[in-house]
Amino acid sequence: MLGLVELADSDGLFDTYGAESFATMRDEFFRRMQRWARANDRWRLLERNRFCVVLRGVDGRAQLELAAAKLARLFEEPLSVFGRPVQLEVKAGFAALARPELEDELAMHQAGLALRSARRSPRLFELYSPDVEADHKDRRALLKSLERAVELGELQLYFQPKVHAGYLNVVGAEALMRWHSPERGVVQPDMFIPLAERNGVIRPMTWWAVKSAIARLARWPAALSIAVNIPPNLLLDDEIITVIRDSLAIHEVDPERLTLEVTESVMVDNQDRMLKQLARLRGMGLRVAIDDFGTGFSSLAYFRDLPADEIKIDKSFVLRMLESGRDHAIVKAVIDLAHNFSLKVVAEGVEDERTAKRLSDMRCDVLQGYAFDKPLRLEEFEKRYL
User: Fold this and answer.
1) Quick one: which of 383, 374, 384 has its CA closest to 178?
2) What is the maximum alpha-carbon separation in the chain?
3) Three-state secondary structure call for residue 238
């Protein structure tokens, strides 16, 4: 059995922690991989983050499961990088060898396809099968369609209203990308957004979304704002400063009307660099919201220094807060803590009037969810709310 094992998201680790720290992680990855390989296995290093191994005597998925369990155990312990724990993650793809003693090109190709499939899966590894190759071809075709859609302007922004918890009037909207393909019909965001992020297409898509949102704000009443989601790697891209500054100047929009949403988990992983960049963006007058709050691993020290204007409580807590005492307690704690730090609180995933009323009683500031409206096409949003 031939396998390719790689240090997952190595480009992201390099961008986040820098060359010196990444070299430490890479060296540790290789050390742990050598501990994983058995004496009779054959292995070699490929590129800066990949390990090729021939597992002798391993012939099927059941035996691979045992090998993968050992691999997972070896990477359970975080690595300390300048005093901070960093969790290394690996992904692997395997393929059967026609002749166990040889590394043939076909097996390398098939293991590579299985590795690509593993990157999209919660599983540590994937074993090559014809389905894996068919899935790879489908995704390549989808990527080409997406690249063409960006060029032809097939993407649209939908807008979901954000409502004042006390007065129930619309105070703004979150802009959400949607794709209606002439050939494929409606393509769900959970299919094309991760694909765009993995292949660099997310960059032009995000700049388009930011520019479109700012252009729309120029036509809306001054009391309304728009929130745009920013992927973590683009938040650290200095071009975001130029894109936003130029668009605001062209359309003469008050920067306070644009909110940039970033996920809490990203803040934890990139704390030092991200805090500086967010402070820089807020210095331009923009508002910053921490999305999916409650799903990361925030410390109070991190909360104290957070350069943000609002917290968005993750909908997983809001959806169950009337049935789960613990979720209710989490929502209340986040609201109270955020207010103590002069941060506004947005609750997303508000599905019914009872939940909306409870959140209002808890002094939540803004509500968002199907209790008020779904994401709407631009024309429909403006017809209903403007």
Assistant:
1) 374
2) 73
3) coil
Q: What is the pTM of this model?
A: 0.73
Q: C-alpha distances in angstroms, 233 versus 81, 157, 285, 312?
A: 20, 21, 21, 20
Of 33, 64, 56, 63, nearest to 46 by C-alpha is 33
Estimate the share of the chain in helix, then strand, then coil, as percent rounded to the nearest 5. 50, 25, 30
SS3 state at 160: strand
Residues 6 or more apart in contact with residue 328 via CB below 8 angstroms = 321, 322
Q: Which of 128, 153, 114, 167 is nearest to 5 (CA)?
A: 114
Q: What does the alpha-carbon distance between residue 107 and residue 250 come to, in Å, rounded to a whole number?
A: 54
- Going by their DSSP bridges, the two strands 344-348 and 310-313 should be labelled as parallel
Per-residue pLDDT reduced to its tens digit, 293-334: 766 555 566 667 778 999 999 899 999 999 999 999 999 999
- Residues sharing a CB contact under 8 Å with residue 321, sequence separation 6 or more, in sequence order: 327, 328, 331, 355, 358
The tokens of 97 are what? 């060898």
Per-residue pLDDT tens digits for 338-371: 999 999 999 999 999 999 999 999 999 999 999 9
